[in-house]
Write a structure and sequence with these properties.
Chain lengths: 235, 405
């Protein structure tokens, strides 16, 4: 078992009111699953994603990642887990605007303490994987949306994490480019990675072979399905 | 993450905002610049003083009625001291084994004339034989004044090169008679040129035998004695010997204070050090204020920078940056910023000092300890005033930072 979540609660204090963003979530994810987490806004899916991504810690409950208890970890331990185990892909790309493609991709390796030469080599390899070798010295604002998201994917992959965690990865892209990105996720999954996709679009969720629907901080349904092949996946 | 990475990130961020970085640095630049400029000036003075003033009269001390008076109170005590006479000088000669030369001297100002030419404001010295040992004077042409010139009260003089050049631009000065005041003196020697000190010529003088001086320029009044000891180590012994002889001549009992003064270049140097010490303290005060202001500006701009780059911090944290990575990044950035300011300040300060040295008579020399101090101070400012913004950055919540617009 890669991820073992048991009775997870997350309560925010908003003014004098307590908001139960997560209200007892239990979820197991095995290695090399392709999971979509769906739900309307306010359903708690972003909170769940933040917790899975070790950006946040739960109010109560247990989250075990590769048999390590995350819920009680310190800030720096969480940072190490994010660095080693999680590859983030965000809706708004979240690239460093002043840095070129190469530096953006090698960023997780910088914090992993990997030496300069090795870092460069691995970053170049990963950039080649997403087909951006000819853009390696470009800054994000010189790239199209699809290219930026491919840079973000390369950055997520470069440190060989256990989980690729994508938050509305096609939300800022046109449908054609979105298809390309989904094809990229499919390839990543086919290569043996675990992919967790957070989305509110059922079209996107259709690419996964397991869909977890959330509502009011709880899991409403957890369904395995035959994934739709993304157009362009045959490339 | 190592320091090199942090420096790279920091320099990149500074380059991205060149004008803002520069404006931020003005306070630091001005602070460091003023320290460097003033310390370079003081350093220049120091070297100048020790090179020219001290070496010229190495192992020399002076005896006069008053000594080195630095306050009104001290003056009141010594103002009635008896004059030093030429007899005092003669008595000392031969009675001070550790002195290599004892020269009586006095000075006045006057005009030197030859036919229709004249040089005004000439220092007219009366000096005993051996003066050239005291001041390390080299003869250019002719000869120095001798004991015999003195004994016979001859009407002869040696002149500085400037006097010779101005009165005799096209002819030989030796053997000519010039008027110093009312009397005529034959030039028997021209002293080799010494150049300028603080923009003032050291070659604008005429020296006549001390007894000739006594006869025509100063019938009464006190003389000074310049005494050179045989070497550095025997200076105190020679001073004690002089003191013993003079006290004996004046019948002073044990316990009575000296009614004459002995001045060494060390006394002069001490006063000089006090003066430059004052300059130093004022400069440090001014610099401290501008550095404080500079530091606050740096803190302000770093807070702005942290806010502007909240999202970047969020991204870095999501990618695995620990608190200390972010802290280091921003500390290195503020320190790089302040050190850049320090370096600019050093360059401008040194430039100013060298410029002042080139276009004014003020001596300047780059003070390397001051340069080190400048770099050290600016680094401290970066670390001190960068700490709070860096701490704020380090403890940002990654989720909120990522959401920040």
């Amino acid at each position: 078992m890669l991820i073992g979540i048991k009775d997870l609660h997350r309560v925010y204090q908003v003014g004098t009111e307590k908001v139960h963003a997560l209200n007892g979530v239990t979820l197991d994810i095995e290695p090399n699953e392709y999971v979509a987490i769906m739900g309307p806004s306010g359903s708690g899916k972003s909170t769940l994603m933040n917790l899975i991504g070790c950006l946040d810690t739960p109010t109560s409950g247990s989250y075990r990642l590769k048999d390590h208890e995350i819920a009680t970890m310190s800030d720096d331990e969480l940072a190490r887990i994010r660095n080693q185990e999680i590859g983030f892909v965000f809706q708004t790309f979240n690239l460093l605007s002043r840095a070129d493609v190469l530096h953006n991709v090698e960023l997780p390796l910088v914090y992993a303490g990997i030496k300069h030469e090795e870092r460069r080599r691995r970053a170049r390899e990963t950039i080649e994987l997403v087909g951006l070798t000819d853009r390696i010295k470009h800054k994000p604002n010189e790239l199209s949306g699809g290219q930026r998201q491919r840079v973000a994917i390369a950055r997520a992959l470069v440190n060989k994490p256990s989980i690729i965690l994508a938050d509305e990865p096609t939300g800022n892209l046109d449908s054609h480019t979105g298809d390309e990105i989904m094809a990229a996720f499919l390839r990543i999954w086919q290569q043996g990675n675990t992919v967790i996709l957070v989305t509110h679009e059922s079209d996107i969720a259709a690419h996964a072979h397991r869909v977890v629907r959330m509502r009011d901080g709880k899991i409403e349904s957890d369904v395995r399905q035959a994934p739709r092949l993304a157009s362009g996946a045959a490339r | 993450m190592n320091l090199r990475e942090s420096c790279g990130i920091a320099l990149g961020a500074l380059r991205a905002n060149k004008l803002r970085s520069f404006l931020t640095l003005l306070g630091t630049i001005i602070g460091v610049m003023s320290v460097i400029a003033v310390l370079s000036f003081v350093e220049g003075l120091n070297r100048f003083v020790s090179d020219k003033l001290l070496n010229a009269g190495a192992n020399v001390f002076y005896v006069d009625p008053y000594g080195f008076v630095t306050s009104q109170e001290a003056w009141e005590k010594v103002q009635d001291n008896p004059a030093i006479t030429l007899d005092d000088g003669d008595a000392l000669r031969g009675a001070v084994p550790h002195a290599s030369s004892i020269v009586a001297q006095a000075e006045t100002r006057g005009t030197a004339r030859y036919r229709d030419k004249e040089v005004r404001a000439v220092s007219i010295h009366g000096r005993g034989a051996g003066y050239e040992l005291i001041d390390d004077l080299a003869i250019g042409r002719g000869r120095h004044l001798t004991e015999l010139d003195d004994q016979r009260r001859r009407m002869v003089c040696v002149v500085g090169s400037e006097i010779a050049d101005e009165l005799f631009p096209h002819t030989e000065a030796l053997g000519k008679s010039i008027r110093l005041g009312a009397e005529s003196y034959e030039i028997v020697g021209v002293i080799a040129a010494k150049g300028k000190l603080f923009g003032q010529s050291q070659d604008r003088f005429a020296t006549i035998p001390i007894r000739t001086f006594q006869k025509f320029k100063q019938e009464r009044g006190s003389f000074g004695l310049a005494i050179k000891s045989v070497d550095q180590a025997s200076m105190p012994v020679a001073q004690q010997e002089v003191r013993n002889v003079l006290r004996g001549r004046r019948h002073l009992r044990p316990g009575q204070p000296d009614n004459f003064g002995i001045t060494t270049s060390e006394n002069v140097l001490e006063l000089y050090r006090n003066l430059t010490g004052g300059i130093f303290v004022v400069t440090v005060g001014v610099a401290a204020i501008s550095l404080l202001v500079g530091g606050i500006v740096i803190m302000n701009i770093m807070l702005v920078s942290v806010t502007e780059r909240t999202r970047e911090i969020g991204i870095r944290k999501a990618m695995g940056a620990r608190r200390r990575d972010i802290l280091t990044q921003f500390l290195v950035e503020s320190t790089t910023l302040s050190i850049s300011g320090g370096l600019i300040g050093i360059v401008v300060g040194v430039g100013l000092a060298l410029l002042a040295g080139a276009v004014t008579p003020l001596p300047t020399a780059v003070s390397w300890p001051a340069v080190g101090l400048g770099i050290g101070m600016s680094a401290m400012i970066g670390i001190f005033f960068g700490s709070y913004p860096a701490w704020r950055a380090a403890r940002l919540d990654p989720i909120e930072a990522l959401r920040y617009e």
